[in-house]
Design goal:
Radius of gyration: 37 Å
Shape: elongated
Largest sheet: 6 strands, mixed
Distance between the termini: 59 Å
Structural class: mainly beta
């Protein structure tokens, strides 16, 4: 987000009079001392010091001290590039603004998490001074100034930092220090001594265990006569994180596929993907296509799939729930008036459904699936139950406007009604209750549709049967 000239003026004026508020995040330049006349790549580390995860998007403005003064970091930003450690963070430089600034935009940091921005190919100007970077948080309104000192070498710890700042429990961080002057350093914990060689700024590194949630490290720079300066840095054990998501929104059919997207961080081992049929070890991040309906049992209407990760402050589990469209018997009937061969169509059935049982002339179709209730759905051909035994349309396919004869045979029905289109109103149609048969004529609509025959009985719920009527354009 670009700032207007008035916005920039207000930020500078607010800081000048000390009217800014505290920032949510902590900010640190590593190193915070640069030698004049060099090309450097200082890193701005932004850390969420809270155990709690942030929310929403964040924009951080960093005003750049660019100009000819000794307290400017550089005389020109030519060649400068700023790279974020997390690709989700966008770096937008506005170096021709007055004053120049950079907008850093990305997702809120999780608890104790950090993001780093490396200022690559920075040409440090020749004059010694203190370059002040004014940092403004858009969401909190807080502001803070962080300074990079430009000076010549002396007995000084120029920088001392841990990278990564946050690690998985049991992993190590790398301590890096740059010192000027002195003969040796001592690191705590462990009273580890490392000698300094050469006459210029000296850089060294050491891998160290992170044994506690917030591990402090002390670096002491000594001269031969035991004069010293010291600095402290810290590394954190990251709380285990597990996130599972899917590309699905809303209810799905039992045969539909879904993509699972997951990531885990700061885990002791690879996370587990847990389904109703078992668990599988997966990579720290990835995707997988599944058919959630394969995990349905009985008449359950939803399926839970979870990602579980073990680690510090864990375990953590993230779950997605898939909701399903209800099971429906579209039809169960004979193919024609001969009543020898049966046909059925069931949508959103549970695995293993439907099943047909019985003998010739007395068949039962049983379907389990979402929304069926305590018992499965059942349809009958034969016996005392209400039923639609035959439903045909002639011609089928038809052309728009054709006269179509719809014929039907029922069982134990008192009346019948026909609807043209699912969810459309129905109108009564002829039914000979003695022969349990009837027919009616309709005009084919302009496009393919579904005919719905609804029959009523005595003291029993209505029964419907659907028939897909294909309508094809008339040929010239």
């Amino acid at each position: 987000m670009e700032l207007s000239a008035d916005d920039l003026k207000r930020i500078v004026e607010t800081e000048a009079v000390g009217a800014g508020t505290d920032t949510v995040y902590q900010y640190r330049f590593d190193p915070d001392t640069l030698f004049t006349g060099v090309i450097a790549a200082p890193i701005l580390t932004v850390t969420n010091p809270s155990q709690d995860d942030g929310s929403g998007a964040q924009t951080i403005y960093v005003l750049m001290p660019i100009g000819p003064d000794p307290d400017d970091i550089t005389t020109s930003a030519g060649g400068l590039s700023i790279v974020a450690s997390d690709p989700q963070w966008l770096v937008s430089p506005y170096l021709n603004a007055d004053p120049p600034y950079v907008a850093l935009s990305g997702p809120a940091l999780k608890g104790l998490a950090s993001v780093r921005f490396e200022f690559q190919n920075l040409h440090v100007s020749a004059g010694k001074g203190a370059a002040a970077f004014l940092i403004k948080e858009q969401v909190s309104g807080g502001s803070v100034t962080r300074t990079i000192t430009k000076e010549a070498a002396s007995l000084k710890i120029n920088s001392f930092y841990a990278a990564p700042v946050t690690v998985t429990k049991g992993d190590q961080t790398t301590l890096t220090w740059v010192v000027s002057g002195g003969s040796y350093v001592v690191l705590q914990p462990g009273s580890i001594r490392r000698n300094i060689t050469g006459s210029g700024p000296f850089t060294d590194t050491l891998k160290m265990d992170v044994d506690v949630p917030a591990q402090n490290y002390l670096l002491q720079l000594y001269t031969d006569d035991r004069q010293f300066v010291q600095e402290v840095t810290v590394a954190f054990v990251g709380s285990v994180m597990a996130e599972l998501d899917t590309d699905v929104t809303g209810k799905i059919g039992t045969k539909d596929e879904a993509t699972l997207i997951w990531s885990a961080e700061y885990t002791n081992s690879d996370p587990s993907l847990i389904t109703p049929t078992g668990s599988t070890t997966v990579d720290m991040s990835g995707t997988k296509t599944v058919a959630p309906g394969n995990f349905l049992t009985g008449n359950s209407s939803s399926v839970d799939i979870s990602l579980k990760a073990e680690g510090f402050n864990g375990p953590k589990t993230s779950t997605v729930t898939f909701e399903f469209e209800p099971v429906e018997i579209r039809w169960f009937r004979y193919t024609d008036m001969g009543k020898t061969e049966t046909t059925h169509d069931v949508v959103n059935a549970a695995p293993g459904s439907p099943t047909q049982s019985g003998t010739s002339g007395d068949w039962t179709l049983t379907a389990y699936g979402p929304g069926a209730g305590q018992e499965p759905l059942r349809a009958y051909l034969g016996g005392p139950e209400l039923q639609v035994q035959v439903m045909t349309a002639t011609p089928n396919p038809a052309k728009p406007g054709d006269e179509v004869t719809v014929s039907y045979a029922t069982g134990n029905a008192q009346s019948a009604a026909l609807g043209i289109g699912i969810g459309q109103p129905t109108s009564p149609v002829p039914l000979d209750t003695a022969s349990q048969a009837g027919s009616t004529k309709i005009r084919a609509p302009s496009a393919s549709t579904t005919l719905v025959l609804v029959v009523k009985g005595t003291d029993t719920p209505d029964v419907s049967s659907q028939l897909d009527l294909k309508v094809v354009p008339a040929t010239a």
